[in-house]
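Appendix B. One record, verbatim.
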Amino acid sequence: MESEDSCMGNACTRRLALILIIMLLLSLLACDTNNVAEQSGQSKNNILVGFSLATLKEDRWLRDRDIFFAKAKQEGMEVIVSNANNDSKLQYQQVQDMVDRGIDILVIAPHDRNDAARAVTLAQQRGIPIISYDRLVCNANVDVYLSFDNVLVGEIMAERLLKAVPSGGYLIINGSPDDHNSEMFRQGYMNILQPAIDNGQIELLDETWVQNWTRELAFNFAYQMLQKHRNNVKGIIAANDSLAWGAIDAISELGLSGQIEVVGMDADLAACQRIAEGVQLMTVYKPIKSLAEEAVKLCKLLYGKEKVDSKRTIYDGKYDVTYVAVGVVAVTGENLKDTVIQDGFHLEEDVYRKAKMPSE
């Protein structure tokens, strides 16, 4: 016969084993329940958006990212953001990763308008709607192209320069050749300048296209052209404020400050400071907040398979794509306070840090 102590020991062992088995089963059940809850929560409540940016080099793209992310979060969306650092191959890989992670919507600002079609096709094959953000992906048939009226942007820039400099030689520093917007801006410039060129009022001395919107390349071009034409250059159109900065540095280095007017676009803080100081003639304010918030609205519409309300289309080289355009505003020394400052885009003390504060 087993002793009483032995029986009690066996009973304790069996009881302990049973408790461990129950705890293990409860643990496994809890894990399964959590996984189901997490998956169903994401699929039922949250829209997962992939926001693929070509670059974060300029101030404006940082604003796009931050405003879009904040607005999307406010609307209950989850966002995966990537920065391709002006590398088409990297952007494709980043989009591929987003698709593999199960994004519901792709918002893409392409580095290369043509190469980015590969990334769009990848998303389309998974049934993912695509918003081409500010820059058009060509030959891809995206669901929506959301941007500004880029031809109008070019027209505003050229009109302001022509008003300030009605005669003399002009230089044009176009944006990157792989960015469709660059062509649209130039179309706007030439809509205004061509009649003045044809009647001999102004002379287009030269122009260039700047790969990756690189300021140093803009500086080099402006420096060479100013040396070549020197006293004949009276006005420069630069496709954004960074390129305008490069041109203005070249003007300064050659001792020509105050003799040549320069216009740009994007309303960067440094550009607004230059305008306040009288160094840059004007810029174009493109309200990034409106653009980013409109992108979030479009994400919700596309996710719900609702129709985008826009009568405009744009030809992407193969397809007519729905085009949603946000308005823009010319910014000069006269209206800095009423535009970028009033809108909260820049602080007054930052814009006028090197200039006398305007009287109230």
